[in-house]
Design a protein that fits this description.
Number of strands: 2
Number of domains: 3
Strand content: 5-15%
Largest sheet: 2 strands, antiparallel
Helix content: 40-55%
Length: about 170
């Protein structure tokens, strides 16, 4: 594949941008990519993705939403402390997500604007239990709203829908 800018050199830099759910791809040679500012040639060799995440925990950006949580909070599975996670920017195991959930949620919201995965997922899950669980969660929220509005007939209908979906799981 040739560079889309100069049409002379082979494309070695492939840039994919997604803006407003519109995907655009750009294939450039190293020189054109450098001229357009698509790549930075003076990147430190010690650069690592987890260092980017560690920067999100700088004191001026952290909002302490749970001051009662102990600072020495540790994962019961791998022993990683919250302080260690903030320093290295990587979790130690899958249980860390549950252990540090309250601390991770604001960070994930700031990075991704959501804490719910909305991207691709394995085909074996597509249209399966995950969709049903999300529907149940949505119906439960609607049920709570109906109860708050004292719309009891609607609440009963929603309750029955939830039960029906739960039996199918």
């Amino acid at each position: 594949m040739m560079c889309e800018a100069c049409h002379k050199e082979p494309a070695t830099v492939h840039v994919t941008r997604i803006v407003n759910d519109q995907k655009t791809e750009l294939h450039l040679c190293a020189q054109c990519a450098k001229e357009r500012g698509e790549i930075e040639m003076n990147v430190e060799p010690s650069f690592a993705f987890h260092n980017i995440l560690a920067g999100f925990f700088e004191p001026e950006t952290v909002v302490v939403s749970h001051p009662s949580r102990p600072a020495a909070l540790r994962c019961s599975n791998c022993g990683l402390s919250l302080a260690d996670y903030r320093r290295i920017g990587k979790l130690g195991c899958s249980q860390c997500y549950a252990q540090f959930e309250r601390e991770l949620e604001p960070l994930l919201k700031r990075i991704h604007r959501s804490v719910e995965h909305t991207g691709k997922r394995p085909k074996r899950l597509a249209g399966g239990r995950l969709d049903v669980r999300r529907e149940i969660e949505r119906l439960r929220r609607e049920l709570q709203e109906a109860i708050a509005r004292e719309a009891y007939e609607e609440a009963a209908r929603l309750r029955d829908q939830i039960r029906s979906l739960e039996q199918g799981l």
